[in-house]
Amino acid sequence: MVGPGRTEKMGRRSLLVGGVAAGVGAAALVGSTRDPVAVEMTAGETDPGSLLGWVSVKAAPFNAQGNDTADDTAAIAAAYTAAQQQGRPLYFPPGEYRVRSLPAFDNYATVFGAGADLTTIIHAASGTLLTLKNKQRVAIKNLGIFSLDPNSTAVVLDQCFRCSFDSVVFRGNHTSGTHPRFLPQRGVSLINNTGGTSFVNCDFNNYGTAMSTTAIQSYIANCKFTTNWVSLLGTGNNFASGMSLANVEFTSDINPKTTSVHLLVDGRANDWWLTNVWFEGAGTALQIGKAGVGGPSQFGMVNCKVAARTIGLDLMHCRQPYLANVAFDPDQQSTPRLIRIDPNNVPEGTAVNLITSQGADFPLNTFPRGWSVQGRGKTVSAGGGPIVVSPDGKAWRLTISNSGQVSGQNLGVI
């Protein structure tokens, strides 16, 4: 187990978040090697939340302690009731708030902490910390959530729309040292038609599954997933689960007990779009679809970096994936297969300017015959050659024989 005072060798750009025991303070920084420092206001100092008209959970008559010892569940619930009645935001000053659960915030509620490393909500029970059902535009900002129990879930959103999490650190207890005890532990679960939810500037660390979705399109931007067994899971096999990711990092170490797969879509799904996303430190970086069952209706990667120990990108079942400006590398001390494509269930797709550190270019037999591939000054179709249009508007697929003779197949007007 890695905790305060101990570190473990890391892969490039990776941070191994310390999986700590239940009694250890939860405000430790990611990768910190020293004990957390409690932040308290000095005598006579004004709580900034009160200046803004927010309802502070530490104010009388609520009197949450935030000392990582007292059970603050009831005090926080009472403070939220007051905030709801007054139409004001709920505020958590610096502290470590040990709770069994949080209240089910109502539509349009806003919850603030003092900062993701200053305010930590410690979930000291099994089950779910926060469940929102049929809610809209709940906003949670600037705090940390630390999950202790192996069978706990931090947040469940059920039929919710336009909720948002901004600068929230989600942290569990999974590491290579605690494997497999915390594999059931989950960070965020999006279910039952939840959509339009955004996660911005958030961290998801040390969970069995950091985030899972069976729901329609939501958004992850400027976030980082570190040291999770499964970082992001699209599941349900229901044509619904989808996600848009931009400027996101998925990292881990190279221990096989730490991270199995970063992004897994395990059946029929909706749209998955990735832009400027970095992957490293997993057995498989991306596993898309389940062969013979289904996968995303659209899957696209643009300006991404993929490294893994065993397989970089595993396209098992997907409709016409699109890959552009994606760089593929092996992880440290490994020789992975950088791209694997199931020719029966991913027969067509597009690859543009892919980069590999294992050669000048990917060999054409990497791609099934129906794929269109462009790179290093050449445009080819793995299915027989490029398509050109003659002056009369007809399309022709060009092929070349072993002797160099060029012929054209008339495809008509397409």
TrEMBL record:
Gene3D superfamilies on file: Single-stranded right-handed beta-helix, Pectin lyase-like
Cross-referenced InterPro entries: Pectin_lyas_fold, Pectin_lyase_fold/virulence, RHGA/B-epi-like_pectate_lyase
Domain Rhamnogalacturonase A/B/Epimerase-like pectate lyase span(s) in chain numbering: 60-227
Name the UniProt record assigns to this protein: Mannuronan epimerase
